[in-house]
Amino acid sequence: MSPGEVAWRVWEQALRQAWSRRQVRPGRVDGLAAIAAPSRPGEERRFASVLPPDAASGVPAEASAAIVAAANRIMNGEWEMLGVLRMDMKEPDWFLDQATGRRSAPNAYAFGIDHRDEATVGNIKCVWELSRLQHLTLLATAWYLTRDDTYAVRVDAQLRAWWRDNPFLSGVNWTSGIEVGLRLMNWAWIRRLLDEWPDVASLFEGNDLALHQLRWHQQYLAAFESRGSSANNHLIAEAAGLLAASCAFPWFAESDRWRRRSRSLLEKSLRDNTFPSGINRELASDYHGFVFELGVFAAVEASAAGAPVSDDCQRLLCGMADCMAALVDTRLRPPRQGDSDEGRVVLLDAPEHNRWPALLSLAAALFGPLDWWPQVRPDAGSVLAVALTGGERAVAGRPAARPSRFADAGIAIIRTSPSSSPEIWCRCDGGPHGFLSIAAHAHADALSVEVRCDGVDILADPGTYCYHGEPEWRSYFRSTLGHNTVQLGGRDQSQQSGPFMWARQARTRQIPFSGPETAWTAEHDGYALLNPAARHRRSVRLDQAGRTLEITDVIDPGDGHDLRMALHLGPDVTAGLAGDVATLSWAAADGGGSARLELPGVLDWSLHRGETDPILGWYSAGLGERVPAVTLLGYGRCTPGAVLMTRLSFTGSEISLDSADSPKAVSLGAPGARCGKAPENDPEAR
Length: 686
Fold this sequence. Notes:
Layout: H1 3-18, H2 61-75, E1 79-81, E2 84-86, E3 96-97, E4 102-103, H3 118-121, H4 124-131, H5 134-146, H6 149-165, H7 177-193, H8 200-203, H9 208-223, H10 233-248, H11 255-272, H12 285-304, H13 311-327, H14 356-367, H15 380-389, E5 405-406, E6 411-415, E7 424-429, E8 449-453, E9 456-459, H16 471-478, E10 486-488, E11 495-498, E12 501-504, E13 508-510, E14 519-527, E15 534-543, E16 548-556, E17 562-568, E18 573-578, E19 581-586, E20 593-598, E21 604-609, E22 611-612, E23 615-616, E24 618-619, E25 627-628, E26 630-637, E27 643-652
Antiparallel strand pairs: 1-2, 3-4, 5-6, 6-7, 7-8, 8-9, 10-17, 11-12, 13-14, 14-15, 15-16, 16-27, 17-26, 18-19, 19-20, 20-27, 21-26, 22-23, 24-25
Helix pairs in contact: 2-5, 5-6, 5-7, 7-9, 7-10, 9-10, 10-11, 10-12, 12-13, 12-15, 13-14, 14-15
């Protein structure tokens, strides 16, 4: 951190201590005087940014049915959050982490709580996720589509319960600005969706406690602003929440000031967090979608209130959407680069693991799809957002063809032509380690590749799995060995110094060339501190006609260091290993496929699956979830001039594994001796 940031953090801590006098404890909220005066003397409070009368009719029947089905699960008391099935949704405990069974103290001063201490609060992500109250937005959507009052009554009861149980600065749900901002954005949509429900005014503008909570939330965001090394998606969520609330609920003396400040801050932070190409600078695909959704929903609220964001901001958001359309594979799956916590902003549709189809639908409705975009279906979110803003907004200067290279972000997408099916899709990572000094959501994945066939993970990025509470798992899923790249000297390319910090970051550069779009080369200096220093260079080439992907690795100078190369297979892939050749097969809706993987013969190869000592052979589809998957691990020593060649050939269905459905297909092999084989007494050989 810079000296300026250190000074600011000291000042912020002093402010937090001073604000302890402002804490309102549970049980002391009844009888609070109304503090939400109209914005102008004599003006009555009202909610003005409502949906047009016929907006519900535009929601597709399929989307509507999925919303009602999801809402009925909530009404029955069950809901899945971050891999945990909660069964208490009829009367949720806002402080209970059901994953660990731990419950934090509701009356504790928020800024006195260490929310990263699992012994105190449990898994904080699971607690915060519930108090985003997005399940209530979904229930409000169900009421809007069906006019079944049981949904509205449940929303009313739970909102009042949350407001009562979580007064200002009491409890763990006040410890993060992101959570404060997201709640405000969902409250705006809940109020909008329930506008024609007879009791909605008594729930919001006629409810002193609701007015207190709206003002408390906005005061919090106005006072505590993420800065310096934390000015990433945290700052954007804070600014977006304050802008949305000050536009939707302009009932306070500070509303105009809050709106002007937050709009300016949102636009600046979006610029700071986005490469000129349109890629989010955190270089974590999930956060690209999250930041886009934050910006879009804040812009929608501003437009509905007659205070739209600038044309430059609209172009930036549209550019982010075009990047998303260019990055996805044939099944609309994004890359799995960096951290992922499946963060959503406003939940108007039944939730899906893959949020990007919904985000692309939203973008298509607001900005219009380009000819090269994948086809996306409208849903409730896209229909209602465009209804609120009044229609699609044309943005000039968009790409005429689908881009495949994002040089400033170091991302290259290599894929077969649309006429070649099934699609081979490959992401190559040759960009910066992450964003800002701590690069909070980065992984030590320089030069890693991700390969899919018809949307099925073949060489997979294993994912994230956890943020808090399980440090050994957090470390593994961020490690170099946890990605499809090369590890030297038993160390990561970038040095971890905490669950969201890096002490040293590898520098990566792409090597320019004038060849086809199906080839790529880059290198990084993450092993410059080894003795002797070493540099890793990787080239990837796709032979479209032969449906073969070649990966070439060179270590320079390559003298004596232990070397391990990991290739992680997707959870649907079955593997058999014989020496330095692996045969792969997988099932899919179209019958599946197969491939031949020729591995560098100078390494000693072994096959691993679901191991814990050490951790190896795992895949995480989402936060809180992990399943065993095959990892192929090659071990040897660097030798001068050695070239490591990996060749992945997609063979269709002609390869038949004798034991593809048996445990032997994924059991540990006993590879024969190879040039460069590890000594038997070397602990690195395990």
